[in-house]
Design a protein that fits this description.
Length: about 425
């Protein structure tokens, strides 16, 4: 990525900046090109050949002016995007989104109002970058309005000379005009995570595992990427075992689970898989829905990881080049695992497609989830005595788990 960024900086440095007079001239050429295009579109073959050629030439000059205008402002986009690094997206991704905002600003710019283009474009570029961070930086998407509220909470904390909104949440929430409970819930969903290996030596396994258990039950959502709840590499790969091989590969490459922890852009992953950037985004979105339901399932069972199957569904993919560090099968201390009053600490989760009648079949028993979900894939959390059906981040229904014994007879749930 460093080489790509260095090359991009070198390329955009070749384009000279524009004076206010040059901006006005290019803006007039763009406007004339748009009008000429409209005339060509309206007149079609009815136009005289000479007039058509003149309009085509004006359109060509307008397109050239638009390109020159955009190239001259690429450095402006880079300077704005660089201020938003470290928030879940690579700088080149931020620049790409910012360029889209800059293009929109050119389309809307009115040179007759007398101000420079940079003054007008900055809000459009900033909005494009921040919206991309809100939409794409987390596996579980935080709505744009919620992302804006979180940003406002942190800004208010700085205004009050606080290190964090948590230092005086009532005062911070009041300054923003947000209920305290809502502010607390939003902040819990974007809490910064730390890799598991980095904390184990510092504070010890037991305290660390207790903290992971508590935050998972309370938040019931993925933390800031790419750490996936701060789990170790082996644990994340186990999580990815619940999606298809292609989905797992896209998520692992996108969020840096393998190969040193450096996430790749959508374009880079597309080149590896031989598909378009948009197809990679679609695969990532589909797998994200499954992971969201799994995280909800983890929170309901008060554990972090599903039980490792005795016979893995598939072997470690060949594209995983970096061997993960060994880790425990769960992120809970032994004392909690042996507690008689504790809920089941291990479980399995399965994906099922809803039939045309609105049912799924789990371990030989039919569960109704509603005809409205026909053809939809749901996640089923299989506990010792209960089956939970999860979809779209919420529990749809539950059913007592029945064991089918020899001869097809129901043995009932095991104690």
């Amino acid at each position: 990525m460093f080489d790509s960024l260095k090359h991009y900086r070198k390329e955009i440095g070749r384009f000279p900046l524009l004076s206010r007079q040059q901006e006005a001239e290019l803006a007039r050429a763009i406007e004339a090109g748009v009008l000429a295009w409209d005339k060509l579109d309206e007149g079609g073959r009815k136009l005289a050949p000479r007039l058509r050629r003149e309009l085509q030439e004006i359109t060509r000059r307008g397109e050239q002016a638009f390109t020159e205008f955009a190239e001259a402002n690429l450095r402006l986009v880079m300077s704005i995007a660089a201020k938003y690094t470290g928030r879940g997206l690579d700088l080149l991704d931020l620049v790409q989104e910012g360029n889209l905002g800059m293009v929109h600003a050119i389309e809307m710019f009115d040179h007759r109002k007398g101000f420079k283009f940079s003054t007008y474009a900055v809000p459009w570029i900033r909005q494009a970058v921040t919206r991309a961070i809100a939409d794409q930086s987390r596996t579980i998407r935080l709505p744009v309005h919620a992302h804006d509220t979180v940003t406002a909470l942190h800004r208010a904390a700085r205004d009050l000379a606080l290190n964090s909104p948590h230092d005086d949440l009532p005062a911070v929430a009041a300054r923003v005009g947000t209920p305290v409970d809502e502010a607390r819930a939003l902040l819990s969903r974007v809490r910064t995570t730390v890799p598991l290996e980095a904390l184990t030596e510092a504070i010890g396994d037991e305290l660390l595992h207790e903290e992971f258990d508590r935050t998972t039950r309370e938040a019931r959502s993925l933390e800031d990427e790419p750490d996936y709840l701060g789990l170790a590499s082996d644990e994340v790969l186990l999580l990815l075992d619940h999606v298809s091989p292609r989905e797992a590969r896209v998520l692992a490459l996108r969020h840096g689970v393998v190969d040193g922890g450096h996430g790749l852009t959508l374009d880079a992953i597309g080149r590896q898989l031989g598909v378009t950037r948009e197809r990679v985004r679609q695969i990532e979105k589909q797998a994200t829905g499954v992971l969201r339901d799994l995280v909800v399932a983890y929170g309901m069972s008060r554990s972090v990881l599903p039980a490792r199957p005795a016979e893995p569904r598939r072997t470690r993919p060949a594209w995983v080049k970096t061997a993960p560090t060994a880790s425990k099968s769960t992120c809970l201390p032994e004392a909690a695992a042996s507690s008689e009053s504790a809920v089941p600490l291990v479980f399995t989760s399965k994906r099922h497609r809803v039939s045309s009648s609105g049912h799924i079949t789990v371990e030989g028993q039919a569960i109704s989830v509603g005809a409205a979900l026909r053809g939809v894939t749901v996640v089923v959390l299989v506990e010792e005595e209960l089956l939970r059906v999860i979809h779209d981040g919420r529990q749809l229904t539950t059913a007592p788990r029945q064991r089918i014994g020899p001869g097809g007879k129901t043995d009932g749930a095991e104690a």
